[in-house]
Amino acid sequence: MFTGVKVFSATKAKERDDLGEQVNRWLRANSDLEIVDRTVTQSSDNEFHCLTVVLFYRNRAGTKPAAKPGTGTASSG
Predict the structure, then answer these.
(1) Domain ranges of the chain
(2) Rounded mean pLDDT, 44-60
(3) Comparing C-alpha atoms, which of 39, 38, 36, 32 is closest to residue 59?
(4) Three-class SS state of 16
């Protein structure tokens, strides 16, 4: 069971290159959360290639839920 979702997506090559660091930065800043599932999706057409990482999380056992910026449903970055 999860209590929140965090979405990271990038279309431009430079953004895709930096996506892993964005995810790691968010994970470090939200170490009180437990990642319970994740999906990674790549989609493309003739011009664009989109990479999306979706993290499903919940508070770790013994921690209080806290509203934090950047931990909302379907937020980006």
Answers:
(1) 4-59
(2) 93
(3) 32
(4) helix
Distances from the Cα of 30 to the Cα of 37, 71, 74, angstroms = 15, 8, 16
Do 1 and 36 meet the contact criterion of CB atoms below 8 Å apart?
yes
Q: For 54-75, what is each residue's pLDDT tens digit?
A: 999 999 877 766 665 565 544 4
Strand partners, 57: 4, 35
Share the mean pLDDT of the chain: 87
Amino acid 15: pLDDT: 94
Helix/strand/coil percent split, the chain, to 5: 20, 40, 40
Which run of H or of E encompasses 22? helix 13-29
Which architecture, in CATH terms, is 4-59?
3-Layer(bab) Sandwich (3.55)
